[in-house]
Specification:
Layout lengths: L4 H9 L3 E7 L5 H8 L3 E8 L2 H13 L6 E5 L14 E7 L1 H10 L1 H4 L4 E6 L3 H10 L3 E10 L2 E9 L10 H6 L2 H6 L2 H20 L2 H22 L4
Parallel strand pairs: 1-2, 1-4, 2-3, 4-5
Antiparallel strand pairs: 5-7, 6-7
Length: 231
């Protein structure tokens, strides 16, 4: 089973652990790879939709990993049982707003985990804000490009000090970790965003100019921070 670069990077970023909860497991490919490689000894793979979960069960059985991976129908973290806890909680492939809702509603489970591995598809600032407000520091953040699309993976951990920069709302939107690291792919992402933004400004009506101009200024600021020596 060949994984996409996005899914393989998620698997590679998981810290070896005893127990892992894969929220929104879809067809179970990530859980299977983690069990197959021994990254996680026991895995709970959950999804809100019966169809993908049935497919996951079939794939897990075909891989001979039913003893290592349990499946469960669940809306987010709702169906975690009393007394269950996990070293790692992995949530990927959904919007940042939904991810933030899942983490908030499942805060009891999320707060006990050692590693939150998150791959939001949009509104990443809501995820960074949640982590900052609930005692999770960002151990690392990965920017990757798969099939022409940019993705971000956040590896957050309890033992990492929570970074609260002076302009916290700016850095919720623009990754302080990747800016400080001067990540080349993230710089490409920002430049692409700036180019698109300038195109939108030329096409926009008066009602959108203010927000687009502010975004342009923020993108330029993020790029300037990346280019600053000694940053």
């Amino acid at each position: 089973m060949a994984l996409s670069l996005r899914l393989q990077t998620l698997c590679d970023t998981v810290s070896p652990c005893e127990s892992l909860c894969d929220v929104g497991c879809d067809h179970g490919y990530v859980s299977i790879e983690l069990a197959r490689t021994g990254k996680a000894k026991k895995i709970l793979a959950m999804d809100i939709n019966e169809g993908p979960l049935k497919s996951a069960v079939s794939n897990i059985q075909r891989a001979g990993l039913s003893d290592s991976i349990e499946t469960r129908l669940s809306n987010g973290l709702h169906n975690i049982k009393t007394g269950e806890s996990f070293d790692t909680v992995l949530i990927a492939g959904m919007g940042g707003r939904l991810m933030e809702e899942i983490l908030t509603e499942g805060l009891e489970t999320a707060s006990k985990t050692k590693q939150l591995l998150l791959q939001p598809q949009s509104e990443i600032f809501l995820v960074r804000e949640f982590l900052r407000n609930h005692g999770f520091g960002i151990f690392r953040e990965i920017c990757l490009k798969d099939a022409g699309k940019y993705y971000f993976i956040i590896d957050a951990r309890r033992e990492v000090p929570v970074s609260v920069p002076e302009d916290v709302f700016f850095f919720d939107r623009y990754s302080k970790y990747l800016i400080d690291k001067k990540d080349g792919l993230y710089r490409e992402f920002l430049l692409t965003g700036l180019k698109n933004n300038e195109k939108y400004i030329k096409q926009a009506g008066d009602g959108n100019i203010e927000s687009l101009t502010l975004e342009k200024e923020n993108l330029e600021r993020a790029l300037n921070l990346m280019d600053r020596k000694g940053n």
